[in-house]
Amino acid sequence: EIGMSAYTSLRRSTRRTRSAPLRTNSEAQNHRLRYHVDSIPQSIMRDAPFDPSLMGDRFMLLCVNKNVGRRPKPVSFLELRDASERAFEVLQKQFEIDSPYAMDLSRIDLSIGLMSNPFEVAAFTMRKLQLLYAITHPKEITTNGVAMTLLVDLHRSIDQLEKHCDQPSRAALHAVKVKISQGLVDVGEMNRDVGPSAIIELGESEARN
Predict the structure, then answer these.
(1) What pLDDT, in 10s, does the model give residues 148-176?
(2) CA-to-CA distance for 194 and 40, rounded, in angstroms?
């Protein structure tokens, strides 16, 4: 938990200094909110756990939506393009999913036990692997949040499927999980100097586009 001394420092550091009057109430509010986010010491954002209850709704709104621009994708994340293809092929062969998979979108509720069926889990996982293959293309633009959410989900799904696979397939899927873990670490590290909830675009530099 954040100690009171750190919290007091955070509150003091985010007080708005006196400045020239702004033209409208909306402009004044936006200015205060931007200042509230941008003036937080990076040491606090980096080292202290993120506790929304201490920050307030307006801080959360700005912090979650703060876009810090575009950065190159980590090498380990780009390497997941090949890993996702390997995992896709392993699951396709292991669960014999070699034809179009039909999803029932006629109603909101799924059949009981559907997502505990290894075949169904494999099919959904293969779809997620297609998404990972797409966003790891060097020219495809995504965000750190999308990348991390997908990687965490894939790691969990592959872990669930491994026990239903033969030994060669388990070994191949385990190798992919190791690469996913490294990709998670490297994408997560990108937030170290900008705060845990900042949005970072991942892709080629904007100058090339």
Answers:
(1) 999 999 999 999 999 999 999 999 999 99
(2) 10
